[in-house]
Every structure is written in C-alpha cells, then in structure tokens.
Design a protein that fits this description.
The complex is a heterodimer of chains A (234) and B (272). Chain A is of the alpha/beta class and 234 residues long. Helix content of chain A is 33%, strand content 27%. In chain A, the strands form 2 sheets. Chain A has a 6-stranded mixed beta sheet, sandwiched between helices. A 4-stranded antiparallel beta sheet of chain A has the order 2-1-4-5, covered by helices on one side. The longest helix of chain A is centred in the last third of the chain and has 16 residues, at 171-186. Chain A is globular, with a radius of gyration of 17 Å. Chain B has helices spanning 2-5, 18-23, 25-37, 43-94, 101-122, 130-161, 163-171, 176-201, 209-216, 221-254, and strands at 8-10, 13-15. The chains are: A alpha/beta (234), B mainly alpha (272).
Chain lengths: 234, 272
C-alpha cells in the first residue's frame, strides 16, 4: 500500500477555534474544523460567510486573530512560510495573469520549467499542447482561470486552495476544470474549494465545511449534510 | 531714480541693488494685473507667494551669512542635514499611506546626498568650503527629494492597486521582494526618468542653474560648463541612490515577516 493511501482521509489541516478580525469586521469566529488529506473539501456558504478568508489562512496570506491552524499536527507559523506557500497553492477567484505569454506565466513560480513540462501542465488544465505560445492578453476568462491553475501546479503543490474556480466559466471550461480536479485527486492531491454549486459539491467533494456569518454551521461528507442545497446556494 | 535701481558691483560681480529689487516688485504687480484681468482668482496667492519668497530668501541669506562667517564646515554639514530632514518630510508626503513613508524618504535622501556629496568632497572635485558645500548640497538634496518622492508615489499606487498580482506571486512561494520586484522596477524607472531627461537636454533647451550662476558671475562659458557637467552627473547619482534606498526601505515596511503585504491606507491622495 502506498503512503498516499495510508494518509488519505487523515486530518491534514486542523482549525482550532480560529477567528479573524480585519478592519474591525469579524470575518471568522471560533471556527474549529478539519481538512482531510487526499480529498476535496468544499467550503460553502453565503457571500460574506468567510469562505475566502478561510482559504487565505491555509497559506498564511491571512493570519488568524485568535485560535490556530495546524498542518500535519504542527502550527502553521512553525513551517517556513515560502515552502508552505509552494506546498499549499492558492488560486484566487479572479484570475490574475502576470506574464506576457502563457509559458512566461507558468514560469513565474518555476523559472526552470521546460516547454515539455509546461505542455503537460496545460494538458492537466485541459488546454491544448501549443497553448504556451499564446499571449495572455487575449485569453478568455475560462482560459485564464485554467492557466492560473496550471501556473500553481507548476510549483508542485500538495494542496490546492481554489476560490470558486468555475464560478464565472462557461459549461465547457467548468467541465475542463472539474476533470483537472479529478486527475489531481486521483494523484493524491488535497483540494480545498469554495463552491456555490450543490451538484458540483456532490460530484467532487468528500468533505464539506458550511459557513455562515463567519461561523461553522455544518461539517461532514456531503451526503450527511441535512441542508446542503440551502447552505451551498444561499 | 536710475541710480537707485542700478546694479552695484559686489566682489567684482554686478548684482541688483536693493532699489532694483524693490523696483522688480512692479513685475509682481504685472502678474497680479494679468491674473485679475483673466479673472483667475490667483491675485492673493501670487502676492503671498512673492512675499514668502522674499522673506524666505532674506532669512536664508542672513543665516548663510552667519554660517559662512562663523559656522565653518561643521555648520555647512549641519545645514545640509537640516535640508535632508525637510526634504524627507516633503518626499514622504508623496508616499502617504505607505507604512514608514517618511522614514523611507528621509533614508533615501540622506543616502543619496551623503554618498554623492561625500564622493565629490573625497575626490576633491569640489572644495570643502561652506560656500560650496551648502549650494551643491542643496542641489543634491533637491534632486534626491524629487526622485524619492516619485518612487514612493508609484510604490504607494502599486501597493494599493496591484495587491491581487502581488498576492498571486506570493501564493507561488515567491519572497516579498521578488513578488514586488516588477512594481519596484516601475517605480524606479519613473523616479529616474526626469533626471535622465534633464541630463539629455541640458544646454539644448535649458541653461541650468549652476552654469547660469557662474556665467552671471563673469566666469567664461567653457569654464562654467565644467561645473555643470559635475552637477548633472551628481544629480543622476543622487536620484538613483535616493530612489533605490527609499524603495528598499519602503518595500521592507510594506511586508511583514511572513511575506504578507501590509494594508495600505487607501484613498489618501499624495500631497502636492
């Protein structure tokens, strides 16, 4: 049995009474939850529930005001923050492109990336092989989102934190992203994803965290959540 | 009347008499009349500016007289230090909203001025006399102030508007300096362009201050340009060092130990 299989389902992140206050506003309030390894954890809840804040906590772009987060049983500040960010890749809801061509984009975090490696990453993200030569200025929203996913994958993260990766995409682009996520889960990655789509959560998630007004209201596998549709859509 | 306003010879140089200075107030009246006729509403401001300029220059002239007569080189350096502090406050206001903007500006102006003035004195390019150190120091501090102010203005704008791009780079595991590098480069380019442009066109579309002053003092133009060449080169160095130092100090203050971009006070316009 591979090490991967042994770890699957074990708590990777533990949130211990985590609270975040920013600019006098309480974004998260006493959230205690776990994020299992090797599965897709969907973070659901209405706008302003604290979903994006929770994602930003995972790679320390945001620091908890109270409580603590553990990764593999160790408090997050004990990990080297730059190594942590390569291990836990965050893709924002709005794709932000940084390079002139797609290949430059993929090399932002991985300057030594070869053209062949770039093609493989683009294939995982559902983009054609020769896409690396495309100028980023002409990409559609769906293509840009997939390029951002591939850019993060170039850093070989163990965990992907995705903020509504399919929210503004056409059905074909959303399906391509879902296929990519399926491949990543199959290869042992952990995914934490904000979603507003109950069907998507049922298809992909092994674990759900439902937030409302900064508090955790439900946690568990999608089938066990009594009001999943309500929690996801509101 | 003509005798009262005629130039007088001071140390072999023809300069306006106090009567001539008083007569030049008529030129302010002309400016006030023009603005009044054009209904610009600037008359009061013009008069205040003219009065301020006269008062400031009289005060500075009196203080310089004391420094040149009794302050010695220590007094001259004290004067330059004071100019650096004032310039740091002015340039720091351009970066208002950035953490430690005034510290960054003062550090930049101080670094630019100290290195440039120090080098000129160390190599004997200019004599170490108060009447040279103070005006040359003033030119250097002024150039450094403009460059630092521009660099901080651009850095503030970048930290305010480019947060998603900066955080995208941080999310790829890049350290703060690398994540901010494109914005620092842009800010430094902006800060240095005026100095580079001024250097390019010097003598063609402008006869700069040092050279003009020497020519007015009776120095022949081919000798005067030697001073001006040194001035242009020292201004380039001062601008480069000041903007780079300010940018580095501001950059450090912008990120915390966990390579997170600190909040920038949004919506505070840079003061003119």
């Amino acid at each position: 049995m591979r090490l991967l299989d042994l770890r699957q389902g074990a708590p990777l992140f533990v949130l211990d009474r985590v609270g975040v206050v920013h600019g006098g506003v309480r974004l998260l309030d006493g959230v205690s939850a776990t994020i299992p390894a090797g599965r897709l954890t969907a973070v659901v809840g209405p706008s302003g529930a604290g979903k994006s804040t929770l994602l930003r906590l995972l790679n320390r772009l945001t620091e908890p005001t109270t409580g603590r987060l553990l990764l593999d049983g160790r408090p997050l500040p004990e990990w080297d923050v730059l190594a942590l960010r390569r291990r836990v890749g965050l893709v924002a809801q709005q794709p932000v492109l940084l390079g002139e061509r797609v290949l430059d984009e993929l090399r932002v975090g991985r300057p030594d990336l070869t053209a062949e490696q770039a093609s493989s990453l683009l294939a995982v993200a559902g983009l054609p092989e020769r896409f690396g030569e495309r100028r980023t200025a002409v990409l559609s929203g769906g293509e840009a989102q997939r390029v951002c996913l591939a850019r993060q994958l170039a850093c070989e993260p163990e965990v992907l934190a995705l903020d509504e990766p399919t929210a503004a995409l056409d059905p074909a682009s959303a399906a391509a992203i879902e296929r990519a996520l399926g491949q990543l889960l199959a290869s042992g990655h952990t995914v934490v994803m904000v979603s507003h789509d109950p069907a998507q959560v049922r298809r992909l998630a092994g674990h759900v965290l439902a937030l409302r007004a900064g508090r955790l209201v439900e946690e568990g596998p999608p089938a066990a959540l009594g009001h999943l549709d309500v929690e996801v859509r509101t | 009347m003509n005798g009262a306003v005629a130039a007088t010879a001071v140390a072999g140089v023809e300069v306006p008499s106090w009567g001539g200075v008083a007569a030049s107030v008529a030129l302010v009246a002309v400016a006030v009349a023009v603005t009044a006729r054009a209904q610009l509403g600037l008359g009061r401001e013009l008069v205040i500016a003219a009065a301020r300029a006269a008062a400031q220059l009289v005060a500075v002239g009196a203080v310089l007289l004391v420094v040149f007569g009794h302050g010695g080189l220590a007094g001259a350096f004290g004067w330059v230090a004071l100019m650096i502090l004032v310039a740091g406050q002015v340039a720091g206001r351009r970066g208002r909203g950035l953490p430690s903007a005034r510290v960054a500006a003062t550090a930049g102006v101080a670094a630019g001025a100290a290195a440039t003035l120090g080098a000129l004195l160390a190599f004997g390019v200019i004599p170490s006399q108060p009447r040279v150190v103070i005006p040359v120091g003033g030119m250097i501090v002024s150039g450094a102030m403009q460059a630092s102010g521009l660099a901080l203005l651009r850095l503030r704008d970048a930290a305010e508007t480019a947060r998603p791009a900066i955080e995208a780079r941080l999310s790829l595991g890049l350290p703060a300096r690398q994540a901010f590098a494109p914005h620092t480069r842009g800010a430094l380019r902006t800060a240095l362009l005026p100095s580079i442009d001024n250097t390019k066109v010097v003598g063609l579309i402008s006869l700069p201050g040092a050279m003009t002053g020497l020519i007015l003092a009776g120095v022949d133009p081919l000798t005067a340009i030697r001073y001006q060449i040194v001035v242009m080169y020292m201004l380039l160095a001062a601008a480069a060092l000041a903007s780079l130092t300010s940018a580095r100090v501001a950059e450090r203050a912008l990120f915390d130990d966990a390579h997170r971009l600190r909040p920038v006070a949004v919506g505070i316009p840079a003061k003119n």
